[in-house]
Amino acid sequence: MTLDTPLASLKGVGPRRAADLAAAGLHAVGDLLARFPLRYDDRARFRDAASVRDGQWVTVAGSVASCGLRLTRRRGFKLFEAVVRDQSGPLRAVWLNQPFMASVISRGAEVILYGRAERRADGSLQLTNPQYELPARGERGSLHTGRIVPIYEKAGCVTCRMQRALVRDALDRLPADAPDLLPEWLRGELGLPGWREAVEAAHFPPEGAPLEALNAFRTPAQIRLIFEECLLFQVGLALRRRRADAERKPVVPAVNDRVRAAARAVLPFRLTAGQRQALKEIVADMAQPRPMQRLLQGDVGAGKTIVALLAAVVAMENGLQVAFMAPTEVLAEQHFLTIRRHLEPSRFTVELLTGSTPAIERRRIVEGLASGRVPFVVGTHALVQQDVVFSQLGLAVVDEQHRFGVMQRAGLREKGWRPDLLVMTATPIPRTLALTVYGDLDVSAIRDLPPGRQPVRTLVLPESRRDEAHRVVRGELAAGRQAYIVYPLVEVSAKIDVRAATEMADHLAAVVFPEYRLGLLHGRLRPEEKDRVMRAFAAGDVHVLVATTVIEVGIDVPNATVMLVEHAERFGLAQLHQLRGRVGRGPHPSACLLVHQEPLGEGGEARLRALAQTTDGFVIAERDLDLRGPGDVFGLRQSGMPTLRSGDLLRDRDIMEQARRIARDLLERGPAASAIVAEARRSWSGRFGLASVG
Ligand code: ADP
Ligand code: MG
Fold it and tell me: Whole-prediction pTM value?
């Protein structure tokens, strides 16, 4: 047996179980072993049956004094009961609706039980549905009881118990001298155990292993396995970066006085210190012979667009073309309008190309891009997907894309283009994560806001005080401002969602704000319809925009000064932060009203409080890290983060950072690291679900 042996060849794995395992991402023995238990239970210490108290989790060993199936009063409901006796006395165990237990446990058998003691109506104690084991004579149990036991997440019909047996079987059949990916010198340097020893101890901790460290995933064995996975990932990143650095641009932009003057000419305001610094880093990168690979991070409203535009002028002044990609048509159009306005004082023009560009128009633009006559194009990612050809693409800007341009990067590569790449995001990924997970991108961050911005006043209100929230909205509308009212999608059924949003919009229009014009925006509207509503809101013809979260990203209407969020407790912290970023974009003071249902759970309360306390996206990101469960932060799952099996991006940030440092050293070592490098290439796309390293 090897790590590549399919699970279907393990004892007890038929087609159905194999399919369920596969659905959980478990195909081969290696997958199974890489999947850590969720937690570990201490079932090592045996209790005397007579000393068991109500409510305790206990492990008891004894022999079966009597047992049998019983029918209960509920028809067809079977109950298997056994009385187990040790030297101190008897204890009853009951399995509900598991009649097969009758063929597992028989009178006189030695059993070990683990479960919670409950008091019965007659005052005696029983274990209900306990874990059980039938140890060989003289043994004290070794798999499901009588030790520190691994608890696995169920995989379809494959229970935790079955997985435990599968893991044991796999470990027993793997050759003792299974190859170790980490060379001995590296293990020695880091003080990490060998793979075989680590994988055994991570699943079946040796006697006396510290339970707390185990459940924090910080035993040497666990660290060793997490580290290996992080290292493979980081070696892959380093390889990808190395490949990018080896590429050469056909034209390296020059930055001279003429270029600077041209950039200044389009600049409508003084840049903030943060914008200046970011621009400096970007332009320095553009002047390098290798293509830029840079992430520009900046909170909502930080002014990333103008920075990208100045970079675009540098490219265009050098005779290069610029492609600016936005995630939606609405945003592409908005960028197009902004950029066109900014470019008026320059000699450059800009075109908009999306899926709904009319055919004739489209032909004209596509020809212009191919001939080089069109220097700047804004569009959706259709720009790289459709058969668009550039005469000399020098800069690609990807805006507000949750997957951080992963798709666009792949698209550009496929076309054989090697432009400077600038990926912009308002998602305040904590620095440690950005550095380690986007380790092949350089990061520029704008941490300040344009002058004159006033922090958005944030109020948290229970539903019973919704009237107050409406009064605030009304006050703003009376002053000539505009408002957003946001309603969460509940996701059970898009139809019901839309109905709820529609009904609420009707109610608001008819009853609450009858003297104002309301518009409704939700994800099921046709693009033209969305555009129509958005345009009316931007033009001030619609006063209140009732919306689901489709307004989350990028929309810029400075006259909108108040946002009311319904069911605020249902949104994540990052989402609320993004939403709130839609107001406070102009000279007027703004407010965000978070209306929540009662009672508010602990998590919900902490989230809403955090929002009321700060408007700094980076602080919020760090708070989010603390508040949320691992793997759950900022919808990272959707954001193109790698899927780790043993490791967890948040819990194991420190290990990931260490792996990042070591990965770079390793690549310098050449042959000494060749096995890891080969494995990193192999596992990159499959295991981490990322585009290939090449
Ligand atoms: P984001 O970083 O969220 O994409 P934008 O680029 O849309 O932010 O900028 C938000 C608003 O701030 C825009 O209206 C923009 O014109 C304005 N802005 C950006 N930089 C400055 C600045 N240095 N001074 C004044 N206003 C600015
Ligand atoms: Mg933006």
Answer: 0.70
**Looking at the domain covering 456-614, what would its CATH class be?**
alpha beta
Q: Which fold has domain 257-446?
A: Rossmann fold (3.40.50)
Closest ligand to residue 400's CA: 2
The architecture of the domain spanning 45-146 is: Beta Barrel (2.40)
Nearest atom in ligand 1 to 399's CA: 4
SS3 9: helix
**Centre of ligand 1 from the C-alpha of residue 636, in Å:** 26
Give the domain ranges of the chain: 45-146, 257-446, 456-614
Rounded to the nearest whole angstrom, what is the distance from the C-alpha of residue 400 to the centroid of ligand 2?
6
Let me know if the fold of 45-146 is the same as that of 456-614: no
Q: What is the dihedral of CA 563, 569, 574, 578, to 10 degrees?
A: -10
Listed in sequence order, the residues at least 6 apart from 372 whose beta carbon sits closer than 8 Å to its beta carbon are 321, 390, 391, 392
Q: Which ligand is nearest to the CA of 273?
A: 1
Quote the Cα angle for 480-483-487, to 5°.
Answer: 165
Is the CB of 346 inside a 6 Å radius of any atom of ligand 1?
no
Per-residue pLDDT tens digits for 356-395: 889 899 999 999 999 999 999 999 877 876 678 899 999 9
Atom of ligand 1 nearest to the CA of 452: 25
Question: Alpha helix locations (H) across 247-293?
Answer: 257-266, 273-286
Summarize pLDDT for 539-577 with one digit per residue, the tens.
999 999 998 765 655 567 889 999 999 989 888 787 788
Please name every residue paired with 118 in a beta bridge, in sequence order, or none if there are none: 126
Number of Cα atoms under 13 Å in the Cβ half of residue 395: 33
